[in-house]
Amino acid sequence: MCQQPNRLGGFTLIELLVVLVILGSLIGLAVLSVGIAGPGRELHNEAERLAGLIGVLAEEAVLDNQEYGLLLARESYQVLRYDPIKQTWQALGSKAHALPAWAELSVELEGAALALPTSAGDAPAKVGLLPQLLLLSSGEISPFRLRLAERRSNGLRLQLVSDGFRLPVVEVLQPAERNQ
């Protein structure tokens, strides 16, 4: 009589791999449907990018003994550097950094709201570039309250605030603070 080997219960390697592929696909679909990379996350990334840029420029201003500025518009911003020889502000880079179409920027300097132009201007040779935010070689920064917001009425609102000496940090505005 031929005796069959006693098979232990378990899964084969192929079965385990198939299950892992199915689970990976489902998790990928769930992540995409939740919208991790939605407007809120993108707006937060833009705010963090702007706060980081201000920090780098403030450091560069002190280290290089240069004056830097930010030319702000509702839909974009551009870095400027003061040229003491020509006594003018020169744009760094060929064009302004544009915000996403659904986002807008507003700013208060020393408590007063500024009317920002629609575009920061893409041409570096544009005459009369004057930044609204200054980052001086002495380490001082123009005191400001900068807000990044989604254009829709109930959208996310973020702000960056500096008293002129500290670097800004990204804060989420609560609904009661949004109208101020």
Automatic annotation (TrEMBL):
What are the boundaries of the signal sequence? none
> Where this protein primarily resides, as one coarse class?
membrane
* Bilayer topology: Single-pass membrane protein
The lineage's top-level taxon is Bacteria
Q: Where is the General secretion pathway GspH domain?
A: 46-164
Pfam family example for this protein?
GspH
Residue spans crossing the bilayer = 12-36
**Flavoprotein in keyword set:** no
Query: Where in the cell?
Result: Cell inner membrane
State the UniProt keywords alphabetically. Answer: Cell inner membrane, Cell membrane, Membrane, Methylation, Transmembrane, Transmembrane helix
| Repressor recorded as keyword | no
Family to which the UniProt record says this protein belongs: Belongs to the GSP H family.
Q: Which NCBIfam families match?
A: IV_pilin_GFxxxE, typeII_sec_gspH
Query: What is the recorded name of this protein?
Result: Type II secretion system protein H
Gene this protein is translated from: gspH
